[in-house]
Design goal:
478 residues; alpha/beta; Nucleotidyltransferase, domain 5; 5 domains; six-stranded mixed sheet; four-stranded antiparallel sheet; elongated
Length: 478
């Protein structure tokens, strides 16, 4: 490409001194075609490269393309950003190049692959007014090996940008209140104003203008914590754009790639660490880090009340002939002696507790899907012992058999072989009842020893339990 000085020389030599193209080519070393182009028009400068080389990033281009292609089959809000790709390249593949190079290639690759779009925002000047925004997001996680749809709660301070994120199986009202309580504890106080969209857990009916008929339980909740709720106009999520941005940020950074854990509790512990680490983050065009700005904001918060809000739903119920209580479209078992009785149910965010005459008779992990059976097999053992022919088809036993160790199956087979089907099943149920008084590890250790010793009665297993393997605290296997 010609320099400006060369362009000037060629045109002057030809137009002023009437030198031929051949002579100028010989003097400058440029081809005749280059000379003709310079004489034909204005100086055009340097041309943009048709292909951008990536010397350091080059070996990772196929990896980036593969991630982006996989994103096309992922939930739109859980796809890789350029920042997340750069982070993964550094962490997983040892990339040592510049971030700007990765950003530039990802931008080009997204356009080529056909994902992503550009957005524009209005710059705002945020004042320290003690306000926060609240919203829910949706994502997917692999829990105990199963891809599961989850909801995540976000509360974000408008001034400092400090945020809190917590995962739930649903966004029902109890989860909504529980998330608020955890967020208030995280921030160390209550924001005087919380901004919402018109979610049904808070708003019963939207009236003209800013008027709303609030859910009675939500009114009690915000009155207890003394904050003022403010609701956006209908279909105007941009009015709480800060938390909308955090919902997207959390999904892209905390949940890409799709997180894996045994439980939501385990995931929430990881995400809490991410929220705390975000305190060192600096928001563009803001003075200081998020935590430094929050120091000034914390003075605006309302102190927490001495006791947390009692987030419990109490209801009456009646157990049916299957010794189950239907709660929120799911069945929970109670001991068979309490079948077909009037009971009291206390519904917590994570537990369901069932009472009879002020005595707790059952406690279960709460289920959030519909038409599920949460059965404690111990509730049915006495009844099954009296009706051993129902053992093979009993739902609580079938559920338990999917999880119990192979040694129990071997013991059952031996009992039936030595004692006969009916007597063997009844005697085996006596072994299952040992879980009531001994730890899971001790029972299963005794069962393994009984198999090795060719014992074929529950009395033999019980004698081995007199010498437990460990001094572990008793745990229930169901």
């Amino acid at each position: 490409m010609l320099k400006v000085s060369q362009y000037d020389y060629i045109r002057t030599a030809h137009r002023i001194y009437c030198k031929s193209i051949k002579q100028i080519s010989r003097e400058t070393g440029h081809s005749k075609n280059t000379i003709r182009k310079a004489l034909k028009g204005e100086y055009s400068g340097y041309k943009t490269r048709e292909q951008q080389p990536y010397p350091v990033l080059g070996q990772y281009l196929a990896i980036i393309d593969q991630w982006l292609k996989e994103d096309k089959d992922r939930p739109p809000k859980q796809r890789h950003t350029a920042t997340r790709i750069a982070q993964r390249l550094k962490k997983e593949h040892g990339y040592t190049g510049g971030l700007s190079t990765a950003y530039r290639y990802v931008r080009e690759a997204k356009l080529r692959i056909g994902i992503g779009k550009q957005r524009a925002f209005i710059p705002l000047e945020i004042e320290n007014m003690g306000e926060a925004e609240v919203d829910w997001g949706t994502a997917h996680a692999i829990l105990d090996g199963v891809l599961t749809k989850i909801k995540f709660f976000c509360m974000r301070s408008k001034y400092s940008g400090k945020h809190f994120v917590c995962l739930y199986p649903c966004e029902r009202q109890q989860a909504f209140f529980d998330a608020h309580v955890k967020a208030f504890n995280y921030f160390g106080g209550v924001f005087p104003v919380l901004i919402y969209d018109n979610l049904t857990t808070a708003v019963q009916k939207v009236l003209k203008g800013k008027k709303r008929i609030k859910q009675e339980s939500f009114s009690k909740f915000h009155a207890y914590y003394n904050f003022a709720p403010r609701f956006c106009n209908v279909a105007s999520g941009h009015e709480k754009g800060g938390v909308e941005g955090i919902v997207g940020f959390s999904r892209r950074n905390y949940m890409v790639p799709v997180p894996q854990a045994q439980s939501l509790k385990e995931l929430n512990e990881e995400i809490l660490g991410e929220c705390l680490a975000y305190g060192n983050h600096t928001i563009k065009n803001r003075p200081g880090t998020v935590d430094e700005l929050f120091v000034a904001e914390v003075t605006k918060l309302i102190p927490l009340p001495p006791e947390e809000f009692s987030n419990i739903v109490i209801s009456d119920a009646k157990s049916d002939k299957y010794s189950t209580v239907i709660v929120d479209k799911n069945r929970y078992s109670v001991p068979t002696e309490y079948a077909q009785l009037k009971l009291k149910v206390l519904l917590f965010t994570e537990r369901v507790k069932i009472y009879w005459d002020n005595k707790m008779i059952a406690s279960h992990k709460r289920l959030y899907n519909n038409n599920q059976w949460c059965l404690n097999p111990d509730h049915y053992l006495d009844l099954i012992e009296r009706r051993p022919q129902a053992f093979e088809s009993a739902r609580p036993i079938k559920q338990w058999r999917k999880e119990w160790p192979e040694s129990l199956e071997n013991l059952l087979e031996r009992f039936c072989e030595k004692q006969g089907q009916t007597t063997g099943v009844k005697d085996f149920i006596s072994v299952l009842m040992f879980y009531r008084d001994y730890s899971q590890s001790d029972v299963e250790y005794a069962v393994e020893k009984a198999l090795k010793a060719n014992l074929s009665t529950s009395d033999g297993v019980k004698s081995l339990l007199s010498y437990p393997k460990t001094e572990e605290v008793k745990t229930e296997p169901w």
